[in-house]
Amino acid sequence: LAAGAIGRFAVEDVAVVGLRIGADLYAYRDACPACGASLARGAVARRLGGAAGDAVLRCAACGQHFDVRRAGRGLDGTDVHLEPVPLLVRDGVAALAVPTAVGA
User: Fold this and answer.
1) Diameter of the chain by CA atoms?
2) What digits encode the pLDDT tens for the residues 26-44?
3) Contacts of 54 (CB under 8 A, 6+ apart)
4) Coil, strand, or helix at residue 18?
5) DSSP letter at 81?
6) Which of 1, 72, 2, 77 is nearest to 30 (CA)?
7) What is the pTM of this model?
8) How far is 32 from 29, CA to CA, in rounded Å?
């Protein structure tokens, strides 16, 4: 992903959006917690009046804003937040940890 880009991926049938902010990668489940829409068509921008490294993801469907660097915390006065997906980069390769169903 290029800096500021959003990509949609499926990992073990779990829809995930990945974002690159500078050199840092972030991953979240691909569902807006406010409206349920995909976040892949959203936009990443700096917070109004924020520092150069600030990163806010805006849902294209409902306009809710989320703090990418702070675990997807909602920024519009609500308790909603994105669901982070653990991400590890090793030797330039990103790996995601998604939950799977456990057999009985």
Assistant:
1) 51
2) 999 999 999 999 999 999 8
3) 46, 47, 67, 69
4) strand
5) B
6) 72
7) 0.86
8) 8
